[in-house]
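Before surveying the methods themselves, it helps to consider a single example record, giving the amino acid sequence and backbone structure tokens:
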Amino acid sequence: MTAVIETEQLSKRYGRKTALSECTLRVPAGQIVGLVGPNGAGKSTLLSLTCGLIAPSEGRIEVLGAPPAGSAAQLARVGFVAQDAPVYAGLSVAEHLTLGARLNPSWDRALARRRIERLGLDPAQKAGRLSGGQRAQLALTVAAAKRGDLLILDEPVASLDPIARRAFMHDLLSFVDELGVSVVLSSHLLSDLSQVCDHLVVLAGGRVQVAGDVTELLSVHHRLRVDGGGLDGRLPATARVVHTERTVAGSTAIVRSTEPIPGAERADLEDVGLAYMMAMEAQR
């Protein structure tokens, strides 16, 4: 499958602080890719490198087969919504669309106008007076109407209420179906990502902990209750315990195994993501 983002040993340092370390990834085209990790994991750094906003300290990155932001044509192929869905508070909804049309040669006026009407946004309303969900939808509209090949969203729903988040995710699925665009969606809300993403990348401690097709990842990760005897003798020889969590109700292990494990349940996406993040946190 064609890759929209490909990195090899990609690293970014700010002085003595390493934000991203030896990141090697191949992000497939035509999918919604969930990028998850705790605060400070390196998610925003990776997305900023992808957009060409910053340069790597080491390693290689290609976006849509070329260096990120290497030309005007390359920039036109990538839409980006940064954290908090930034819009210009002093500009009206209509002025955002006018600005988008002037800056983007492939601007889809019909798409932008249709979405604004469907969302019930007043074209004369200043963006600074919109709700958080409306601002996020306006930012998504501007990015999508650019009609690029890749849409990058850096935690656009983090500050939204559950209803607004669900509406945003629903519209994201519609964009993928209508435009055939590839999407990379960064979030720490695994429950939201489980509704939409086809591919998962888990970052923690500035490193990739696991990456792959969601269906394949779920097929090899299992949730297993740990009794007093532990896991000795219960796991196939090739199995690996990713993380064990102890609670008042008992202990539960997330195990990676291509072989079936008697008594285990299939882990969900939240189980998988949290297990790798917590395993990394336990090592620090």
